[in-house]
Amino acid sequence: MRGLIFLEFNIPRMGRRIDALLLINSIIFVIEFKVGDVRFDRVGLDQVWDYALDVKNFHEGSHTASVVPMLIATKATRSPPPVLRFAPDQVCQPLEVSADNFREVIDLSIRAIPEEGIDQEGWALAAYRPTPTIIEAARALYARHSVEAIARHDAGAVNLRATSLKIEELIEGASSSKRKLICFVTGVPGAGKTLVGLNIATKRRDETKSTHAVFLSGNGPLVAVLREALTRDELARRKALGEHGKKERSANPVKAFIQNVHHFRDEALHSSSAPHDHVVIFDEAQRAWNAQKTSVFMRQKKNQPDFKHSEPAFLLSYMDRHPDWAVVVCLVGGGQEIHTGEAGIGEWLATLSRDFPHWHVHISPHLRDSEYAVPSLAMISRQENVYLDESLHLAVSMRSFRAEGVSGFVKALLNCESQQARRTLAGLARFPIAITRDLHRARDWIRDHARGTERYGLVASSKAFRLKPHAIDVRVVVDPVHWFLDGPGDTRSSYYLEDCATEFQVQGLELDWACVTWDADLRFAGSQWSFNDFRGSRWQTIRSAANQNYLRNAYRVLLTRARQGMILFIPPGDTSDPTRLPEFYSPTFDYLAEIGIPIIN
């Protein structure tokens, strides 16, 4: 029997360190010491469980190994008899271990697990391929970790690095040659578009330099959650260094780094000068407002009665004030428009063609794809200084590290391509998906699957008004900061499975496990979807093609939030309630079941 021991084993994703890691045969013992503790608390157990899951999921040499996490309270006089309870991925539930029974746990594990060894030297050299949430990634990047240190190194991450390097090259070229440039980066849901943008902004957040960059988003919840997460981290770092400042001191640099695009836009109204920033990154650029919505807002809220520009036109004119150079990076999601008045990328291209022909334009050729809703690239392509570049497309989802085909499955499902959805689903063995008509079973399922501090929550369409009998009221607006950042002990957090977040609160953010609650606003009707809006006391058919698309995209957002698995709750309906008749729901349930999604009764 041979073994290796690693002390202070580094987990690159967030700079975490495991106190000790012991490798014997094909068993990895993940050990966390609580020196001086006499009890085993929940926080410590979740901590070592998280370590074990990180090692299992993201360390290449650990995928076939059994992982046994242990929490050792050094002053504990007794601990429960050790019982090995392994999940299907061979990660054991964490064990409470005292100094006296440490050897007993080691021996028990060796007897219980086959002696098939792994290449221990190879294991020590294996790559670590993390897939952080966007919140984790923002924290790591803000703490000056590189994108290479926190991202996987497989095909998806190679694509991520290539895109990041291309944008850096474009920025440096624009700066040195004194030209104005815009690039459009496309990607499937969860491919890392926001990560690319944050990486650029963190590398260039020194406000004393001309290449300073700012990350802009019109997604209010995303901005609020990222700002609060970074502020909490910055405050903790300052306290660790012995500084005792107010929270506002930590928040100020974060506010300069991540801004709401509407606030950035409004600054242009107060001055005719160019913005301080030469490099701006617009996240979810397809959601910029069209001329009608922007004009109404400016007239009603900003006392600008003669304002007639779309948001893309005004933002570009603001950046064009620079006398020398400027770079605009537009991050574009496919099928992500979820609100009226969103202009789509077509408005950006039309504005560039009409008003800014002197700008250099670098475009992902995938803007031609149907989900980006760009009528044609012909108009802009005829101009000089327009370049198509495949490296500006992120083709692989990194959100679902267990199954990269989830976004393709959701696309086929929502396009009513049942055969394609069935084939794609068959390849998602490591990404559990289930359906149920019992919300209590759905909650139990999601709690049973989540481990450690893996985050889970309820999500629903903002038009899901008839889930209220199930105690899901989308009219009650959740605070995304508490919902996404607070722990299981806070009733406002997602963990409580009480408050339901809509597509507006979750777009751009992620859960490990999602319970998607499905109402009668989107119903399967034979071979296509029926789109409905609840008004007054009854459902009304949505006939506008644009509004139908918003609703379909709302479900696209909801169905692509989970990183590890999801359960879909479709209500059974109620024959005594004309707003919740079973025929509103059963065809949808049957469609999902026929695709092959397992049923939880």
Say how many strands there are.
Answer: 22
Main sheet?
A: 8 strands, parallel
Mean pLDDT: 88
Shape: globular
Instruction: Report how far the terminal alpha carbons are from each other.
Output: 46 Å
- The secondary-structure class comes to alpha/beta
User: Given the structure, what is the number of helices?
Assistant: 21
User: Radius of gyration from the CA trace?
Assistant: 25 Å
**SS strand fraction:** 15-25%
Structure report:
It is built from 21 helices and 22 strands. With 601 residues, the protein is α/β, with parallel strands linked by helices. Strands 6, 7, 8, 9, 10, 11, 12 and 13 form an eight-stranded parallel beta sheet that branches. A six-stranded parallel beta sheet has the order 16-15-17-21-14-22, with helices on both faces. A five-stranded mixed beta sheet has the order 1-2-3-4-5, sandwiched between helices. The longest helix has 23 residues, at 155-177.
